[in-house]
Amino acid sequence: MPDILLTTLNAKYPHTAFGLRYLHANLGELRPAAEILEFDIHHRPVDVVEALLAREPRIIGLGIYIWNVTQSTQVVSLLKRLRPGIRVVLGGPEVSHETEGQPIVALADHVITGEADLAFADLCRQILAGDPPAERILAAPLPELSRLAFPYDGYTPEDLAHRVVYLEASRGCPFSCEFCLSSLDVPVRQFPLEPFLAELQRLMDRGLTRFKFVDRTFNLNLQTSRALLRYFLERHVEGRFYHFEMIPDRLPSELREIIARFPAGSVQFEVGIQTFHPLSSQLISRRQSLPRLEENLRFLRAETGVHVHADLIVGLPGEDLESFGRGFDRLLGLQPQEIQVGILKRLRGTPIIRHDSEWGMVYSPDPPYEVLQTRLIPFGEMQRMRRFARYWDLVGNSGNFPRSAPLIWAGGESPFASFLRFSDWLFLQVRRTDQISLVRLAALLFRYLTEVRGRVPAEAAEGVLADYARGGHTDTPGFLAPYLPEAQLPGPGLPRKARLPRRQARHQVGPPPGSPG
After folding, report:
1. Rounded CA gap, 326 and 332, in Å?
2. Tens digit of pLDDT for each residue in 367-413?
3. How far apart are CA 315 and CA 344, in angstroms?
């Protein structure tokens, strides 16, 4: 039985707890006495507690995040009722700021704020030696990254084959965007490159095919980003997939030449644009060159096979629906494969709260602390945008409707305004934003195109049927049959690129959702 049990509740089973693996790897002589036990937020807290107590640990370390703090509070409450002698140690971004008044903090024995890679091991040594510190809240100093043991051996064969494997070549962010916790994490620090490349090789040798980097600014340090891309390109085999977060207005020729050589769909860039509105950018201290950003996205779409996932945020101070819509249309015109529409969150510790009074920012008191209304976007309109974001993900981002979705706004109308009207109509039909089957969604889309938008039924049916066939379906939905010259599929379904993630693979054939069809 372990003395130390590291645990957390992941958002979903495929996600892995990167932080726990760092803690375990850096326990030094205590590592043989420690285990990792992962759950997800769909597990009942009482069942989590049962599994933890069955291991009879002396110390339980929990990773606390915005997505699991509610369930984790219940877990800690039960633990302290049942086994008050077990030392409960919390860490993670949700308990690293504004600890006063948090119920979960009041329940725990210790809380380590900041990067706890080394501080957790020091605390465990004190507890196991019978000399725990008197302080409950312990601020971890920033560790020197060259001192850290890499966590990648902690990924099991099951993780490598079926779950998301996270990596990082750096920590920190040079920017000061007020909604983001990374803005508090300065300066940017790099892991030693050669040892990190050796870790990558071991992961490749063990069969890892999907590499997801969590660096906030992958392309900030050109020497490192160039070296990593070259390393992957020289060793690339079919089916490998690489995900990076990039600064959208920084893509020099040294990187362009390498990026353009990767096979289509093997690289994904997550591009945090967030807003095109000058006032909002100024208010949240976000610095980016929009002309360079647009030129870089055009290059990625026209001259590379990179899958572009771009982010926009609804509810920033100074932004109304009209200006957000203009930004959405502007971004859609650049044809990224996905536009992630997110609702602003008030993360603990971020300085975005300085705008609350002037801009009427009202946030939910419960995780994930999304904005409920602003001075420019009342609550009812914010609710519309929540539905817009979800339906856009189902229709525009999913890759399931590349031919039929653009018919919603075809004809020169604003894509944002057109899709918002579709979103309003769709909600009236289903009264929910989840658990809508693909067949039902296709039927509703066809109804909207023909009954509301006035599209020619035969043309709409052809587009919806082609999209339906892309998923490998070999039947003709009954709602389309009356409008087709022959009630049959045009083919057996378009081929998927071998072993790419499903969502990215769907974008490899057909036009992106921003194109006219």
Report:
1. 10
2. 999 999 999 999 999 999 999 999 999 999 999 999 999 999 998 89
3. 6
| Amino acid at position 364, single letter | S
Helix (H, G, I), strand (E, B) or coil at 12: coil
Which candidate, 114, 191, 190, places its Cα nearest to that of 151? 191
- For 158, residues 6+ apart whose C-beta sits below 8 A from its C-beta are none
Q: Nearest 10 degrees: CA dihedral of 465, 469, 475, 480?
A: -10
Q: Is there a contact between 218 and 225 (Cβ–Cβ < 8 Å)?
A: yes
Instruction: Give the mean model confidence (pLDDT) for residues 174-187.
Output: 79
Give the CA distances from residue 437 to residues 12, 199, 400, 493, in Å, rounded to whole numbers and listed in that order. 20, 41, 12, 19
Query: Residue 71: phi, psi to the nearest 5?
Result: -70, -35
- Please report, as a single letter, which amino acid is at residue 138: L
β-partners of residue 244 are 269
Confidence of residue 472 (pLDDT cuts 50, 70, 90): confident
**Range with the lowest mean pLDDT among 163-167, 188-192, 255-259, 510-514?**
510-514
- pLDDT (tens digit, 9 = 90+) per residue, 95-147? 999 999 999 999 999 999 999 999 999 999 999 999 999 999 999 999 999 99
Q: How far apart are CA 411 and CA 421, in angstroms?
A: 15
- Other CB atoms within 10 Å distance of the CB of residue 56: 12
- DSSP for 169-180, please give it: SEE--S---TT-
Q: Tell me which residue of 405, 308, 352 sits closest to 181, measured CA to CA.
A: 352
| Residue 516: closest CA among 377, 406, 352, 431 | 406
Q: What CA–CA distance (Å, rounded) separates 141 from 192?
A: 19
